[in-house]
Amino acid sequence: VGPRVVATNIAETSVTIDGIVYVLDPGFCKQKSYSARTGMESLVVTPCSRASANQRAGRAGRVAPGKCFRLYTAWAFQHELEETPVPEIQRADLGSLVLLLKSLPGLCLGVLVVSPGCPQVVLGHPRCVPTLSPDVPVASPSLTPIGHLPGGGATPLPDPGSPYGCTEEVLTVAAMLSVNNAIFYRPKDKVLHADSARLGFHVPGGDHLVLLNVYNQAITAGFFYHTARLTRGGYRTVKHQQTVFIHPNSSLFEEQPRWVLYHELVFTTKEFMRQVIEIDSAWLLEVAPHYYQAKELEDASARKMPKKVGKSRDELG
After folding, report:
1. Per-residue pLDDT tens for 198-256?
2. Are 126 and 99 in contact (CB under 8 A)?
3. What CATH number labels 4-89?
4. What distance in Å separates the CA atoms of residue 20 and residue 22, rounded to the nearest whole number?
5. Domain regions of the chain by residue span
6. The overall pTM is greater than 0.90
């Protein structure tokens, strides 16, 4: 008995596998579908089309005589299956693509219409609505500043001059969201270990803050040797006890957290740390136990310091 293939969507590609003699076609496929009304993307099992079924049958007998066994009736093939699959452009999330095309000068929305109902779907898209100017006719909407940002307004971005002071954090979260679900790896043979490791990143406040925590810890793992702690005389690097200062342009310049990680040191009028984030000293022992000793990372928070100095953001409220 020769090799067999239980056909999935891969059998519809032009891939030829030597020695395939029999193909079993269940008549279904997994297909991504997007609902503009709910803003939800789902992966659902749907009946395949007649064109897809013929493609699957073509995998058998390409290099030798073979057979395709369809697990449904000939009547169902002729009357229940669609002739061709629904084009991906009609079932995909076009939000980012539409905003990108709309940002091009002189492009009319009518150019984007690929099927009936498209303008309503696009203009009603939950990602497009907050990025289109409300005072412009619907037939030719223009983009707000958010709509011109990379990612097409994937998340509500604050004004850089916003009094909330969280622009960097929101941009980080937006970047983490842009990679979909690729942050955490969950292999089937290590599900319990993966879930346990993921719990280690959980923080109060929700999933967006978890992503921010993952980013901060990842930065710590990559730049663990670029750390400094706050002392009464200012910041000193952990390993070389070099006096350094947070750059005035940093968002942490006024906060002065206990522990920081920096991207680089530059000397102008002083030794300044640039691109600084707040970290937990416990992370350093976790990601670089070969580099740090516990006594180097003893918490000096009990020492008297001026009010608000050496406080974390959570403690400052």
Report:
1. 888 888 888 888 888 888 888 777 788 888 889 887 898 888 888 899 988 888 888 88
2. no
3. 3.40.50.300
4. 6
5. 4-89, 95-152, 155-216, 223-316
6. no
